[in-house]
Amino acid sequence: MGRMSSEIQSTRQLTVALRDARVMQKLTQEELAQRTGLTRPWINQFEQGKIANASISRILLLCRELGVTFTVSYNVPEQSPATPNHSHGISDTRPGGSSDSSPNGSSKESEHR
User: Which residue intervals define the domain HTH cro/C1-type in the entry (predicted)?
Assistant: First the structure.
């Protein structure tokens, strides 16, 4: 099974993407409602863009059931050389020059492998 990918920049794009995911999986609104505990009328209105402020918990519930994932992307300002970089956690330099960047004793590099 392949994966679809689309950039979501509006509520309407999100509702269309979730509806498309449901249809691609050959699920009816009723079946999705039974699987999630939401009502079919709510899912219908959501897919039509008629629910202006759907809770993120309900949206995530639909996403989990449909196998839809979120990737968050944002801009990070460039840091000047004089600005310390605190985004990688606390570094603990040990006697003898070794460094430990995580509470479990593994270095940051090994955490990302």
Answer: 18-75
- What sign has the CA pseudo-torsion 22, 28, 33, 34? negative
Identify the DSSP state of 50: -
- In this structure, the chain runs to a length of 113
User: In a structure prediction context, what are the per-residue pLDDT tens digits for the chain, which is 113 residues long?
Assistant: 677 788 888 999 999 999 999 999 999 999 999 999 999 999 999 999 999 899 999 999 999 999 999 888 899 999 877 655 555 554 444 455 544 444 444 333 333 33
Residue 18 is part of which domain span? 11-66
Cβ 46 vs Cβ 91: under 8 Å: no
pTM over 0.90: no
CB-based contacts of 68, cutoff 8 Å, min separation 6: 17, 18, 21, 62
In a domain, 45, yes or no: yes
CATH number of domain containing 31? 1.10.260.40
